[in-house]
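Incident log, support desk, overnight shift.

02:14 A customer reports that sequence design results differ from what the structure should imply. Their input is reproduced verbatim below. On-call engineer (initials T.W.) acknowledged and began investigating.
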């Protein structure tokens, strides 16, 4: 709670005696800018999206494969926010075979799962969204590495998990806020 005072002026008395004010910002996310990046894990592997297999995994990629870039070059949609302490709100999208996909999280079999759904990231998000993540610096010493916290579940971050020979993109819960988990480290 802040001791800062904010002057507001009532403008209208609406239905059911609802009071409307001028000069206040809404809590919606409004798109600010788009960054174009490849995403790497701690092993310098690139995140590759394969919508046909309904998965994304970090893989070793050759320079030639990276130039073709199918499923590797992300658009990171940055949003304005009224609560900057949570981190920079971002959404991820990608082009694969002339189709656009956006990253979101969904509950499947009682577990949160990262999915890529066909469609566009919205310009404005009026409230909560399963496609928003808060970009945070991974550690104070690494300004080019980040972790991404899922906006609908505090303490859940994008990470990778080894499954056979794959390093699949997952959501992972941090056990302690000060814990440093290398599987959550993502760099541009």
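02:41 Re-run completed on a clean worker. Output:
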């Amino acid at each position: 709670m802040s001791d800062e005072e904010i002057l507001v002026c009532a403008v209208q008395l609406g239905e059911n005696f609802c009071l409307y004010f001028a000069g206040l910002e809404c809590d919606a996310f409004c798109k600010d800018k788009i960054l174009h990046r490849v995403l790497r894990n701690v092993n310098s592997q690139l995140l590759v999206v394969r919508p046909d297999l309904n998965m994304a995994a970090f893989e070793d990629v050759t320079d030639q494969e990276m130039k073709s870039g199918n499923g590797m070059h992300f658009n990171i949609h940055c949003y304005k926010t009224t609560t900057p302490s949570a981190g920079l709100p971002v959404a991820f999208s990608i082009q694969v075979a002339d189709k656009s996909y956006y990253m979101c999280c969904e509950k499947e079999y009682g577990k949160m799962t990262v999915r890529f759904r066909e469609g566009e990231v919205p310009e404005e998000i009026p409230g909560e969204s399963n496609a928003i993540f808060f970009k945070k610096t991974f550690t104070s010493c690494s300004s080019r590495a980040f972790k991404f916290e899922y906006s609908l579940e505090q303490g859940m971050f994008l990470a990778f998990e080894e499954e056979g020979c794959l390093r699949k993109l997952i959501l992972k819960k941090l056990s302690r806020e000060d814990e440093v988990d290398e599987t959550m480290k993502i760099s541009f």
